[in-house]
Amino acid sequence: MEKFLQVIRKTVTSSEISIKFDGEETRRKVKRPGNDQEGDLLPLYGGRDPVSGQILVVVPPKKKLEHNGITVELVGRIEVFGEKSQQNNFISVVKELSGPGILVADQTYKFDFSTIKKDFETYYGINVSLKYFIIAKVIRKVKLNLIEERELFVRNVQPEPDNDHSVGMSVGVKGELHIDFEYARSKYHLNDVIIGKVYFHDCKMRIKNMEIAILKKETCFQDASATNESDALMQFEVMDGTPVKDEIIPIRMYLSNLDLTPTYPTINSSFQVRYYLSVDIYNEEGKRFFKQQEITLWRKEL
């Protein structure tokens, strides 16, 4: 802590406020989705992990800081983008660290939000985000307030789902095509492997190629309407050309290299995220035949 303050003192000519999380040096960090900057790493917390730390208010030598109070706030926020952008704070807990006063030297204040549950995971999607952050504020009498924000990343381990079972689906065109797909399970953890088979019972159609994809479908709810976006996270060609009758093609898809979240049911009446296995078959005339099967994804470990 003293080393941290020494670095600030060397560069500060006016009052500043900073946030430091407890155990920050050893806590695992993750990259903010969609940001390629190496230094943009966020501390990782489980939903029941305590969030605590220190607020550092630095006052330059021979100066003083008059204020009307110092506060810290834990915020959980859902932001929906688009034509009608909106924000919704589902968590907003403010704690007063100090009443009005005058600081003539650096001051450290401790904060602790150990009792606040973080039930929803951090999420950065196409049209919506869910974020957690700490806001520290020095309320000043005349000048602008001193405000600092620091984001934290939340993930939640989930219990293994019950009632897992094999799933199957068929693609057929009467008299021309009959294909069955079979997958060993319908529920997978984020580092799992999807294993299945494709059975060609009858194929008189001239097939150009067949592709299998994992689709992520994000649905946002605003003003009694829903906006849907789909993203193909993995797509590969299973075969090209027309198979022979009764041919069987094995399928193996590794999830660990994909940017996946668990399946989210409706979160705070704002959005949901679901995943599907999609099979696309194209004939030589360019016509597409497809079928989709929903799967459930869950987080086994952080």
From TrEMBL:
Domain of life: Eukaryota
Pfam families found in the cross-reference section: Vps26
Family listed: Belongs to the VPS26 family.
Protein name: Vacuolar protein sorting 26 (Vps26)
Organism for this UniProt entry: Blattamonas nauphoetae
